[in-house]
Specification:
Layout lengths: L1 E2 L2 H5 L2 H12 L7 H17 L5 E7 L2 E3 L3 E2 L1 H20 L6 H18 L4 H20 L4 H32 L12 H13 L7 H6 L5 H22 L4 H19 L4 H22 L2 H32 L15 H14 L6 H15 L3 H14 L2 H10 L13 H19 L2 H4 L13 H23 L15 H5 L1 H39 L11 H21 L1
Parallel strand pairs: 1-2
Antiparallel strand pairs: 2-3, 2-4
Helix pairs in contact: 2-3, 2-5, 3-4, 3-5, 4-5, 4-10, 4-13, 4-18, 5-6, 5-10, 6-7, 6-10, 7-8, 8-10, 10-12, 10-13, 11-12, 11-16, 12-13, 12-15, 12-17, 13-14, 13-15, 13-18, 14-17, 14-18, 15-16, 15-18, 16-20
Length: about 575
């Protein structure tokens, strides 16, 4: 444990991004894109200069805080967050929106600060900063839908922050410590903090903010959003709740249920948002298993997922930027106009489908192996099919946007900076898939795992080809759900149908009660007024005149009695 110093603060990668964003706001417009691009580079250099293991100590008003806590788990997440910040800045290099140029680095810096936090107070502050800055990114979509989605997003994340704060206070009261370590669901504090992480990780029935908000941000804003929020929650769950059995089943549900809604969704960015839920499920299962191997798998999958999911969002963002829509019903044949974007999208699709020689294959394999090693065969089957057969986003997104039918749309290729960002990310997806050791050496724990075994390769190829075959058969025979404009409610149905009906019914009941109360109040008021009128009005007994002389006599008698009593006693 070392004492936290100002020098360490200046070398904190999250602080560099946050402070740098404030300085970028003061620069002229022509310098802001380049400055935003340089910030992650400076943060990376500073971070690599820090030791791989570090724990700092800082006392504030009697509370022991740990602003920087670096170990194997926090190191790998910080590294990928910085890389994601750089890719986001490069992708948005053409963007002149001052709000996004400031909010994205603050968002990334806050997420990094939360990952490096060794105490609950520092975590809470960074947690709230990330929530506020990410909500601003959604608002920067500058549409009515973006404003509504941003408000809903902010509501969910304020609730998450409140749960984290209340849980932290109870935890400190019980343990006299704010250290961010392993928690237990059996305690009230542990349950509240768990709920805070569950909201941000988009657990089932708490996930709709994700599908609602991400597609309404700008093309560049969505890329940044896809990298940090949910993966920060994954890190926190891995830090505090590794080995919690319930997470295994929650994660298994997460891998399956979003896929069915993604199949009928028309907005391809929303399809990717559903697929994001699916991929988070793998990480949550790895956390629930809780072994060193499974936690390595979670970290590896988070690392690779940020890259290939970001690549898919970038490709759809490029389409939205050039065409003005990401609806499957309005796209098709764009490979003729945007061949590079189509190629990068296919690489992202191969990665997310865990196809051999791509990054998803080497990351998901660790989790699958760890699940089988612990004997959870039902969970293993669910994950296996979810990684190949059930996850249709790797097929639907490139097919309906770039192929399917010729929509007649002709446009320019994506801007150069977008293509460069996609090229870097696509190269990383292939490089990590071909040389998995490049990633494995930086995982939190040492392990002996070789992804390219005969069984693993053949199994994944069979699943991938079976998924493609199933899609082709369904599509050619007209059995695949039609791509139509529609509102997909999924679990929002609970909020918008029965909950809405309940609130409407309660509103009518309260309206009747209010009318009755007002009527009763008016009746009682009239009765009181009438009684006062009768007793105190001009015709009441009190109002009748009394002789002044009689009053003088009575006053004199009272004064005399008082004098007699005074002199006697």
């Amino acid at each position: 444990m070392t004492e936290f110093t100002w020098l360490q603060l200046l070398s904190h990668p999250g602080f560099i991004l946050i402070l740098g964003a404030c300085l970028v706001a003061l620069l002229p417009q022509r310098l802001r894109p380049l400055s935003s691009l340089l910030l992650p580079i400076v943060a990376l250099v500073s971070f690599l200069g820090l030791p791989r293991t570090l724990a700092t100590e800082f006392w504030l008003m009697g509370y022991q805080l740990h602003p920087i806590h670096i170990d194997g788990l926090s190191w790998i997440f910080t590294l990928i967050f910085i890389i994601a910040a750089f890719i986001s800045a490069l992708y948005a290099f053409h963007n002149k929106d001052r709000i996004e140029q400031i909010s994205v680095p603050i968002y990334a810096g806050s997420a990094i600060a939360a990952v490096l936090a060794g105490d609950l107070l520092t975590l809470f502050i960074a947690w709230e900063m990330s929530a506020l800055s990410s909500a601003i990114i959604i608002f920067a979509g500058r549409s009515s839908a973006a404003q509504k989605a941003g408000l809903r997003y902010l509501l969910f994340h304020i609730l998450s922050g409140l749960c984290l704060l209340l849980g932290s206070l109870i935890h400190y009261h019980n343990h006299q410590s704010l250290a961010f370590t392993s928690m237990q669901l059996s305690t009230l504090a542990g349950m509240l903090i768990f709920i805070a992480f569950a909201i941000k990780c988009a657990f089932p029935l708490l996930h709709n903010w994700l599908q609602d908000a991400y597609p309404h941000a700008s093309p560049t804003g969505t890329v940044a959003l896809s990298a940090f929020t949910t993966k920060l929650a994954v890190y926190c769950l891995a830090r505090a709740y590794a080995g919690t059995d319930s997470l295994i089943w929650i994660g298994a549900i997460m891998t399956t249920f979003p896929i069915f809604f993604a199949v009928i969704e028309n907005d391809l960015r929303k399809v990717l948002a559903y697929s994001l839920n699916n991929q988070l499920g793998f990480m949550v299962v790895g956390i629930g298993i809780g072994t060193e191997l499974s936690l390595n798998g979670t970290a590896a999958h988070a690392f690779c997922h940020i890259l290939y999911k970001g690549l898919l969002f970038m490709s759809m963002g490029a389409v939205l930027h050039r065409v003005g829509t990401a609806k499957a019903s309005q796209l098709g044949g764009l490979y003729k106009s945007m061949p590079w974007t189509a190629g990068f999208c296919i690489i992202g699709a191969m990665s997310i489908s865990a196809f051999p020689l791509f990054s998803g294959f080497i990351a998901k394999g660790i989790i699958l192996y760890s699940v089988a090693e612990q004997g959870y065969w039902l969970i293993w089957l669910v994950l296996l099919f979810a990684s190949g057969v059930l996850d249709q986003s790797g097929i639907r997104v490139p097919f309906f946007s770039f192929f399917a039918h010729d929509s007649g749309i002709r446009c320019k290729e994506a801007p150069t900076n977008m293509l460069l960002a996609m090229a870097l990310t696509a190269s990383a997806c292939i490089l990590l898939g071909v040389f998995p050791g490049l990633l494995y050496q930086y995982l939190p724990y040492s392990m002996e795992y070789h992804p390219y075994t005969f069984d693993h390769v053949i199994t994944q190829l069979q699943l991938s080809f079976f998924a493609i075959l199933g899609f082709v058969v369904l599509f050619r025979n007209g059995w695949y759900p039609a791509q139509i404009r529609a509102l997909n409610l999924d679990s929002d149905w609970l909020y918008r149908k029965p909950m809405y009906a309940l609130t409407q019914g309660l509103a009518r009941v309260f309206s009747v009660l209010l009318v009755g109360w007002q009527s009763l109040r008016q009746t009682l008021a009239h009765r009181v007024i009438d009684q006062l009128e009768r007793s105190n009005g001009p015709h009441s007994g009190i109002a009748r005149g009394t002789s002044v002389g009689n009053m003088v006599i009575w006053v004199s008698l009272l004064l005399s009695a008082c004098l007699v009593i005074y002199f006697v006693y």
